[in-house]
Amino acid sequence: EIGARRLFRRRGLKQGGVEEVVTACVEMARLRIGALIVIERSMRLGDMIKREGVRMDAQLSSRLLMNIFYPKAPLHDGAVVISRGRIMAAACILPLAVAKGQNFGTRHRAALGITQESDAVVVVVSEERGEISVAMKGELARALDAARLRQVLNEIL
User: Fold this and answer.
1) Which CATH class is domain 15-156?
2) For residues 135 and 114, what is the distance between their CA atoms, to the nearest angstrom?
3) What pTM, to 2 d.p., does this model score?
């Protein structure tokens, strides 16, 4: 019986949630709006949310994500944390990775930093390049289009 059932449930996204993230990221990349979206998995990120950021506990939607990251919005700086398919917090400050020999900005270094300290998956939209990347386990997959982003998130989550 041991191993027949999962002891810990993943806190990732269901299919609809993946589509909401993909839709928002593709549109933000097109408009060159930067974004940092942390998707919690089995390791809880609650301590990070308590110390930094604004608690939300809102239904995940592409429109809300785009609204949060709109450059003049009060919560646009920092990261959004998604847990159990809900937006739990916005404007979260993440630990920065030291990217030796890499030319990464703060957003990408933050994505790498949180994935070095947790099992979270992070989607980054670069406002400079209009490029979508995914960080996991301290590694970064760059220049993803909608189909590839969808595939990567579905495989991981």
Assistant:
1) alpha beta
2) 9
3) 0.87
